Amino acid sequence: MFWILLCLSIVGGLGFWAGMYLQKDKNKGLLDEERAELAEKDRELLRERHQLHQKIKAHEQEVKNAYDKLAATKNKHIQDINQRVQAAKQTVLEERQKVALATRELNAVREAEAVIQRKINGYGDEYLIPSIQLMDELADEYQIHKAGEKLKACRATMRQMIKQGTATDQQNGTSKILLDFFNVHAEELIGKVKHENYGKLKQELADVYALTEYHAKQAYFAANITQEYYKIRQDELKWASVLQTLRTEEREQQRALREQAKEEERARKEYEKAIKDAAKEEAMLQAAMEKARAAMAKASEEQKAQYEAQLAELNIKLKEAEEKNQRALSMAQQTRAGHVYLISNIGSFGDNMMKIGMTRRLEPLDRVRELGDASVPFLFDVHALIYSEDAPALEKLLHREFNHARVNKVNHRKEFFRVTPLQLKEKLAELGIQAQFTLAAEAAEYRETLRIESMDKGEQDKLLDTLLAHEIDEE
């Protein structure tokens, strides 16, 4: 039994391993088939990848070609745009040049019109340059001969430029015509030079130069006056004006010196007369006093009181005469002592104008009365008379303080200022100058004239006839 079971067991084991072996062969066949399929799939994948790679390369080439084409188109467009921009810039530049040329031509025409208008209307005060402003560039010690040398140097340079042909930028027939035209008018202006008209002549010369240039362009002349030559002619005009101003200043100084000498002579005569009169008066008073003393010695007691009172009165008068004599003698010995006067003339010059001057006269009012002679319609009113041991210095100080208010800023010897009496009084107080000051101007003749003008015509005629008859009676 055992052996049967053992045999069955062995047979069963062998069957199992035989089945396993058969299954293994079967599995191996299946595995080989799968491997073959996988190999085929790998080959298929390789072919597909190769095909895909070829497609990618073809697509990349297409993209590259499209990009290159687009870049070329873009560059061409950019180039076209740049060309159009450059063309537009060139057009704008040309148009701007045309506009600039047209503007210059328009300005030239307008300048020519303005020049012609100035020629027609004349050159007003806006072109006035005070001679003192012209002289500001020069030193105080600048003399006439130096200005003359400068003028001669300018003219020598002008002649040399004409001779060398540098007065115009071209040498042809038209250049001589232009130069002659310009020189004729420039010489005419030089002949008009006065000490106060430099500004007007300077503008006229500029207008002549502008007209010369304008006519040259209009006539298509191939020549122009050079700027250098124009500058020399400007300098010539300037130095001619300086020379004329210096000559005028010299004449004014000589006139002032003559006037000062006359004033000094009048003052000297006044002092001498005052001294003589005072000495004569002293002698008369002393003789009267001696006579009174002699009479008093013989007089009664009642009469002595009268003589004593008479002697006291004579003694007072003698002291006054001695003081007057001493004052006249003192002023005669002091060459700078005198009075500074502050006067106005509202009838002649208005309310806000004062004259600040000085005199060495013993009686300063005599000088004020002289100023109110036939040259002005009304007398001057005195606001202050200030005695000073250095009257010229005090006068100069006040002139300097009110220099900004000068009426005549060209000729400083005209001593009128646009100030009020109150401003003068305040300035004197500020400077610590003591003076008896009167703010109100009497202006008696002026105010009486206004009163007469306000009358009816019949009353005016009647009054004027009365005044005329009175004047005839006085004659």
From TrEMBL:
Keywords associated with the record: Coiled coil
Domain of life per record: Bacteria
Annotated Bacteriophage T5 Orf172 DNA-binding domain residues: 348-431
Database matches in InterPro entries: Phage_T5_Orf172_DNA-bd (IPR018306), SNIPE (IPR025280)
Residue ranges that the Swiss-Prot or TrEMBL entry lists as coiled coil: 31-98, 243-338
Record carries keyword Coiled coil: yes
Transmembrane spans: none
Record flagged with keyword Coiled coil: yes
The name this protein goes by in its record: T5orf172 domain
Record lineage: Bacteria, Pseudomonadati, Pseudomonadota, Betaproteobacteria, Neisseriales
